[in-house]
Amino acid sequence: xxxxxxxLLADALVPRxxxxxxxxxxxxxxxxxxxxxxxxxxxxLSTPYVPEILILDEKxxxxxxxxxxxxxxxxxxxxxxxxxxxxxxxxxGLHQRPQFKVRVVLDLVPGRRYxxxxxxxxxxxxxxxxxxxxxxx
Length: 137
Hints:
Elements: E1 24-31, E2 38-45, E3 52-56, E4 62-68, E5 70-72, E6 79-81, E7 87-95, E8 101-108, E9 112-119, E10 126-136
Parallel strand pairs: 1-5
Antiparallel strand pairs: 1-2, 2-10, 3-4, 4-8, 6-7, 7-8, 9-10
C-alpha cells in the first residue's frame, strides 16, 4: 500500500514550484591566486559531487562545468569578476532543460591553450578544478 502525488501522474508539464528539482547546492565559488600559470577554482558543495566538465578551445576559450540536479546558494550572483591572468569572468546560470542543472562557465584569457582537471583539496564537500595555461595559440 502506498501513494503517489498527483503531479507525478500528470501528462502535462508540472510547475517547478510543485516538485523538488535540485537536491545539491553550490554553497560558494572561490578562486585561488595563480601560481606558475595554474589556478584553482574551489566549489563548496552541500554533498561531495564531481560536475560534468567541457573545455572549449575556441577564439574565446572557456570551461563549462555542469552541476546536475543542483542549485546555487542564494548569495551567489550570476557573475564573478576574476581577471587574474587566466580566468576573466565566472558566469553562473540555472538551466531547466533538458535536465535541471547549474552551469558554471569560466571565461578564460584568449590567445592561450588550457588544460583542466580535478585537483586534490582538503574537505570532501569541496570540488577543486585546476586550470593550467600550457601555450599560446
